[in-house]
Design goal:
This protein is mainly β. The protein has three helices and 41 strands. The structure holds CU-O-CU linkage and copper (II) ion (2 copies).
């Protein structure tokens, strides 16, 4: 185990800034690769998306329909989950939307989320920790009219700076260890990161992308900084703090006023010596697989050099941001009671952290949530450890943490909430849109190790009209034309009201080449990029979910 904190402490590396992609069509190639993360010696075996570690930051606009071309270039199956996005379950990229190696997965959705910082990452059952450790993931920045109208810094990489926080363990040959806590801090994949920021108000978009660790953010001169977002959008007003604990999966955007600091350096640090023992990173773990050099220590996240102001700088912190319309407990239709416990499970070593006394079962539907329900989820933990709880599909409002109202910075829209050891948290969410009897949404602990070990459950959003209905004879029968085709393939359905739920294009070996959830089949399916040859078009009917396969020829 090499401990980089000891060695060249005074030497900094210029922090990488992830590339950007914008528009409405995004090509994401997930691949195995290598990266020179450690300055000397071997490259590290990594994985990335269009990059050697991590992936591009996607800029998307609320109201746009965005289309993703996700190519799995790994040797393994994977998934890509759009964390925080409100979208159909079949597009969500959870453990049920597996992309086989070599396959192109083409989800798309209309962006309904408010402006904030979201992210995407793999979510393959029992493989999430390993695939995130290798470096697969990326940020999503949603823009909307409300945020755009505010006097906030928004020049990416200049005064609006992404900070993806994680830590890794390196072997003597510079390879990642598959462990929940690393010995070395990585900020945007950079060890001992430094960055130049202009002498004005600077915005940092901070993601806790760690496997397990929480980071207690603060500046070396104990200066005040301002929290402007929670996971799912702007707060009502900036919240002034001198420290803030960010748990795995959470995002926060902060403003720091560096107007008077030209020529100075300050450090953004993790004051993790202040974490209590049952918060991830606060425990010493003197030996064993959890032992790590950063445990219960203060360490640098970013060495900041303040340089000259830019043209048109933002120099003041706004006093108001927007008015949040929160969900009201009085309007809830249902309260669900969940537990988090430390449980002895036969066949599992030590205690397992579990939700509702059982390990995740990918074939078990834990809850049916009626479409348009407003629900309170009350999560009562008797665990001796704190767990960041995440739910897919929705953003929620925290109602209470151990009986008291949430802190101001937690009082907006969130999709991860920290459940402190032996406490109860209540949140409220509305489950509008996206009923689907086949594809569930997940909820889980966002510590990837716990999630992989089974600290997860799932729910189906149901509606009266979305149930599986009886098979009728001619439903789903269709012909393809033109066949052969070199460009687009169209459908001729026997049933004029037919709808398509899913299309998978298979090659002659039966291998999935392309997966198109809820495709816009009326416009024809573009097959121009396929190599000439014989293929199968496997079509799942929207209503009956029956699958019919037809042969076609690309020429
Ligand atoms: Cu960020 Cu279910 O995950
Ligand atoms: Cu998620
Ligand atoms: Cu956990």
């Amino acid at each position: 185990m090499m401990m980089f904190g000891f060695i060249t402490k005074a030497q900094y590396n210029n922090m990488a800034i992830p590339d950007t992609l914008s528009g409405t069509t995004f090509n994401l190639n997930i691949k195995d690769t290598f990266s020179q993360i450690v300055a000397s010696g071997n490259q590290t075996i990594t994985a990335g998306i269009n990059a050697k570690f991590w992936g591009p930051t996607l800029f998307i606009n609320k109201g746009d329909t965005v289309r993703m071309n996700v190519k799995n270039g790994l040797n393994d199956s994977t998934t890509l989950h759009w964390h925080g996005m409100h979208l159909p379950a079949v597009m969500d990229g959870g453990p049920h939307q597996v992309i086989p190696p070599g396959t192109l997965w083409q989800p798309y959705w209309k962006v309904q989320n408010d402006a904030a910082t979201y992210w995407y990452h793999p979510h393959l059952h029992e493989m999430t920790m390993e695939q995130i450790t290798k470096g697969i993931g990326g940020l999503i920045i949603v823009r909307d009219e409300v945020e755009s109208a505010l006097p906030l810094p928004r020049t990416y990489g200049v005064d609006d700076i992404p900070l993806v926080l994680t830590d890794r363990d390196f072997s003597a040959s510079n390879q990642f260890g598959l462990v929940p806590y690393g010995d070395s801090m990585l900020t945007n994949g950079t060890l001992r990161a430094q960055y130049n920021v202009p002498a004005q108000v600077v915005r940092f978009r901070v993601l806790n992308g760690a496997i397990e660790r929480s980071y207690n953010l603060g500046f070396s001169d104990n200066r005040t900084f301002y929290i402007i977002t929670s996971d799912g959008g702007l707060l009502d007003a900036p919240v002034a703090v001198t420290s803030y604990i960010l748990h795995a999966g959470e995002r926060v955007e902060i403003l720091v006023n560096c107007s008077a600091d030209s020529g100075k350096s300050i450090d953004l640090k993790a004051y993790n010596s202040k974490l209590i023992q049952n918060v991830a990173g606060g425990d010493l773990f003197p030996n064993g697989p959890f032992a790590n050099f950063l445990a219960r220590k203060d360490f640098n996240i970013l060495h900041i050099n303040v340089v000259a102001q830019t043209a048109k700088p933002i120099t003041t912190i706004p006093t108001v941001l927007r008015t949040i319309t929160r969900l009201l407990a009085a309007n809830a239709n249902t309260t669900r009671y969940l537990t988090i416990t430390d449980t002895i499970i036969v066949g599992v070593q030590g205690v397992a952290f579990v939700i509702n006394h059982k390990l995740f079962d990918i074939n078990y539907d834990n809850y049916d949530v009626p479409l348009n329900n407003t629900e309170i989820w009350e999560i009562k933990s008797t665990s001796n450890f704190g767990h960041p709880f995440h739910i897919h599909d929705v953003e929620f409002n925290v109602l209470s943490v151990n009986g008291t109202a949430p802190a101001a910075a937690q009082a907006g829209w969130k999709d991860v909430v920290f459940i402190p050891a032996r406490q109860t948290v209540r949140f409220i969410a509305k489950f509008d849109d996206f009923a689907d009897p086949l594809h569930p949404f997940m909820y889980h602990c966002h510590i990837s190790l716990h999630e992989d070990e089974g600290m997860m459950g799932q729910f189906i959003v149901t509606s009266a009209t979305s149930g599986l209905s009886a098979l009728s004879k001619d439903q789903g029968s269709f012909t393809l034309y033109p066949n052969p085709s070199n460009d687009k393939v169209y459908f001729n359905f026997a049933d004029p009201n037919a709808k398509v739920y899913y299309i998978t294009i298979l090659n002659l070996m039966g291998k999935a080449i392309r997966m198109l959830p809820q495709p816009e089949w009326q416009n024809g399916i573009d097959v121009s990029s396929l190599a000439n040859g014989v293929y199968f078009m496997q079509v799942t009917d929207e209503k009956t979910k029956t699958v019919i396969t037809k042969k076609f020829v690309k020429e």
